[in-house]
Amino acid sequence: xxxxxxxxxxxxxxxxxxxxxxxxxxxxxxxxxxxxxxxxxxxxxxxxxxxxxxxxxxxxxxxxxxxxxxxxxxxxxxxxxxxxxxxxxxxxxxxxxxxxxxxxxxxxxxxxxxxxxxxxxxxxxxxxxxxxxxxxxxxxxxxxxxxxxxxxxxxxxxxxxxxxxxxxxxxxxxxxxxxxxxxxxxxxxxxxxxxxxxxxxxxxxxxxxxxxxxxxxxxxxxxxxxxxxxxxxxxxxxxxxxxxxxxxxxxxxxxxxxxxxxxxxxxxxxxxxxxxxxxxxxxxxxxxxxxxxxxxxxxxxxxxxxxxxxxxxxxxxxxxxxxxxxxxxxxxxx
Length: 334
Description:
It contains ten helices and 15 strands. It is an alpha/beta fold.
C-alpha cells in the first residue's frame, strides 16, 4: 500500500505499540508515524521499527499525565488521520499495590487527552486499546456487548477509562472505537511475559514458577495478527463500536502453554515447572468471540500458536546475549 497516511501511536515503547509502528511502516511505504511515550526509546532488541522506514518515524518523549499540553500541540501540528492509544499501566498483580496510579493513567489521563481533542476535525479515528479483563472471568460466546465485571484494580481502571470516553462520542461525534484483544504475544515482548520468559529461563537453566499451577485458560493471539486487525479497525471501523481480536481456537492453559514451549526446546516440562500460589483476582478463563471484526472487516488471523512460539524462540536466540543481561522482572514506574 502507498496511500499517504498519518498515525500517532501513544505508548510507542510498549510491546504492542512498537510492533504496530513497525507494521504500519512496513505495510504502507507512504505512511508517517509519530510515537509518543513517557520513557526514552528502549534497547533496539525491543523496537522492531528501528530497521523499518525509520526516516518516516518521529519520536517524542512525553508523559500523558504530565505533558498533556505539549502532547496535544504535537498531535495538532501533525494532524494525524489516526490516533492509536496503547498507553496504560498494564500489570494486573501490581495494580493492587497502588491502584490510584492505574486509574490515573488508564482512566483520568486518557479521558483528559480525549477531552482536549474532542473538537478536532482532522481525525478520522481514535482507537482506544482496551482489554478483555474488563469482563472478568468469561467463557464461551462472549461478544462485545458483554457486561463489564472487572476482577482487579487494573481491569476496573480500564473499564472506567472505556466508559469515560463514551460521552465524547455521543455528544461531540468523536470518532472513537475500542479494541479488546486476548493475550497478545510475539517477538520483542517484555521479558516478564510468560512466553519469552519461559524461553529465556530454560536457556538460562532457571525453573518457571506457575501461579496456581497454571490452570487458568487463556487465548493467545500473535502481535502481527493484532496489528493487522487494528489497522483494519482504524481505517474502516464504525465509530462508537468495540471490536474483539482473538483466535478461533478454544484457548490453552498456562501449564500446557509452558509445557509446549519446554518440549520445543528439547526438555521435559516436569523438570522445569514450579507451582506457586495463585494471584489475587486471577480470572480462571477469558475467551472471547471475534466474529464481528471477521465478518465486518474481513480480518483473519494468519499465525497459529506453534508458528508464533517458533518466532519468539528465534528472536530470543538472535538477541540472547543482550536479553540475558536485561531486567527479567517487571519494574514499576509510577
